[in-house]
Predict the structure.
Amino acid sequence: MKDEMMRWIEKAIEASSRWPETGWAATFGTRNVEVPNLKAAEALPKTAVYREEAVNYWHQVRLAGVDTAEAGRKALDALAHGDSCRAIDALYFCHYLEKPFEGRANTWIPLYEAIRESSAA
């Protein structure tokens, strides 16, 4: 189980590190223009009213991705040292950081819930 958990975490670290590039459906402005990633946001015309909102959103995604990846690495380290409580705490932090993007990033929340359920059993 530990090895499988570590593989899940490694995949989540990789995924969250790429959130701003891979992106997801996100709309901005009164016309709900889809801007699916940071590159698309930065490519918007400077005159687009919603450009700042989109760029800021994707910058926040990038920051959350960096922070969750770092916490994920802490969870891996904790598991490697047999400290499942510290690992679950680190994964909870990832889960917490992903909350604003719930239903979009879909990375740490399902992982945390699956690991929490399996450790409770």
